[in-house]
Specification:
Helices cover 74% and strands 0% of the residues. The chain is mostly helical. The N and C termini lie far apart (50 Å). 38% of the residues are buried.
Length: 192
Amino acid sequence: TAMFFYKVGTELEKDSASLTKYYRTLADLAKQQKDYAERAIWLGKYYVSNQKSTNLDLFNWGLAWFQAGNYIKSDSVFAMYVDKYPTQVFGYYWRGRNNAAIDSTMEQGLAIPHYLKVVEIGELDTTGNSKRQLIESYGYLAGYETNQNKNYSKAVEYFEKLLQLDPNNDQAKKYVQILKERMTKKVPVTDS
């Protein structure tokens, strides 16, 4: 009911500052209802209409589209993020995740340039804030090298980088062992 009245308010309101507050409230109400597509719509209006919008506002807008399962729209928002904040890892990381969801079989390699950029920026991060993004990127790149390029030595290289950050990752350990065995026997990898 509250959403209905706020939506009516957006149609009647002429003051842009008040309108921006309505957009934010509608986005918050949509989040409470777990209606992420609706949330994304209002966050988009909020971001565009608010001259004081931040990178967090842009991030939340893209994340809402991702949570709604609209990976194309989410990717478009994170492309804006990359344009505005090219030295931050987050835009590239979420573009990678969106493109991995769009290209779920990895056949087109849509996520590869984004995950490679995560690695490029993340490896320069001395604070450790990019650890989670690097782990996921290394894992994805290793999977791509294994399954699409059949470049097992490159896959092992990515898995070993992942293990430097996450030494207890049993999956990565398993795949390194399998790939190394297969490389010495020259047997194609089919189970990863």
